[in-house]
Amino acid sequence: MFKKKKSVPPIAYNPETQIPILRCSICTGEQVAGFKDKATGHFTEVVLIRSQQDLETFKKIYNLQNVTKEY
Fold first, then answer.
1. How far is CA 65 from CA 5, 31, 50, 59, 70, in A?
2. Can you tell me whether residue 33 is helix, strand or coil?
3. Average pLDDT for residues 12-38, to the nearest whole number?
4. pLDDT band at residue 70 using 50, 70 and 90 as cut-offs
5. Interval 7-21: pLDDT, tens
6. Are 67 and 22 in contact (CB under 8 A)?
7. How distant is the alpha carbon of residue 31 from its chain centre?
8. What region, left, alpha or beta, does residue 56 occupy, with left being phi > 0 and alpha being psi -120 to 50 degrees?
9. Distances (CA, A) of 16 to 21, 30, 38, 45, 63
10. What's the CA gap between 34 and 53, in Å, rounded?
11. Average per-residue pLDDT for the chain
12. Residue-level pLDDT at 2
C-alpha cells in the first residue's frame, strides 16, 4: 500500500563557487537549507529544516561546520 521513499542523491556542492545558506522566513519561521552561488546569487534549495536534527543531518551530509542564516 505505502511505498518507501527512494533516497534522493545529494545535490553537488562546490565550496569554491557556492556558499551554504540557511534561508529563514521572518513571517512564518520556515527554514530551508541550500547553496547560494557566489557569482549570480542563485539559491538552490536542498532540504526543509523542521528541527535541529535536520540541520545537523544537512551539515553532516555535506561536511559543513557553519551554515549562515539569511533572511
1. 28, 18, 19, 7, 17
2. strand
3. 93
4. very high
5. 555 788 889 999 999
6. yes
7. 9
8. alpha
9. 14, 27, 9, 18, 14
10. 16
11. 87
12. 55
Cell of 46: 536542498
Q: Residue 57 belongs to what H/E stretch?
A: helix 52-61
Cell, residue 11: 545535490
C-alpha cell at 14: 562546490
d(CA 59, CA 33): 9
Q: Amino acid letter at 56?
A: E
Stated pTM of the model: 0.79
Rounded distance, CA 69 to CA 71, Å? Answer: 7
List the grid coordinates of 30: 520556515
H helix count then E strand count, the chain: 1, 4
